[in-house]
Amino acid sequence: MLEVKNLTFKVNENGIERSIVKNISFRVDDGEMLVITGPNGGGKSTLAKVLMGIEKADEGQIILDGEDITAYDINHRANAGIGYAFQQPPRFKGMTVIRLLSLAAGRELKESECCGLLSRVGLCAQEYVRREVDATLSGGEMKRLEIATVLAKPHKLCIFDEPEAGIDLWSFSMLIQEFEKIHRKKAESLILISHQERIIKMADRIMVIENGTIGAVGPRDEILPRLLDKGGSCTCMNRE
Questions:
Q1: Which terminus of the chain is more solvent-facing, meaning fewer CB atoms within 10 Å of its CB: N or C?
Q2: Quick one: 2-228 is in which CATH superfamily?
């Protein structure tokens, strides 16, 4: 279980201090899927980076399965059991796909294992396994590779930042199936940051973040009707 208590992250812009994440508290139970949504610029991706240790919290506490990981850096949090897929994955000129997936898995993967991972995210395995993770890959291809790195080994908690971004509809349907499989097994907790209605509808609980704070949080059946209300003020959801 993940417990987040009074988490705050600040930046200094031209000598003026501004809170991007403000005193946020929530939990994710074992095997639960929490979908975080909300308007662009509200602090969702920043929150994910703070949870992963890419950014350091100014205040608050992060506890994973009873272990206080607040002071851990990104490597220690990965070792503690957190997997993370960037919204905009980095590229690594000179590194092959099979090498990237092996690093993510923490062991040398067989080509057949890499092909299996690539197939799960909608990539034709034999065409990609020896390619470099560089600018020759499209944004959608990089996004699917990034998700494959998270699938490469078990985690206690997986964080996916807008997994639908740049993905074609066929590949998106495959990813939905993968998330459903993970969720059914209840072996890993999931945090998905998304504007996509199909993903939001998969959630056990939904959390809406606006202006760096929690605007609403609760069971899907309680929060989803508010997001679907065309007469409401929420503009955070993509219904296409």
A1: C
A2: P-loop containing nucleotide triphosphate hydrolases (3.40.50.300)
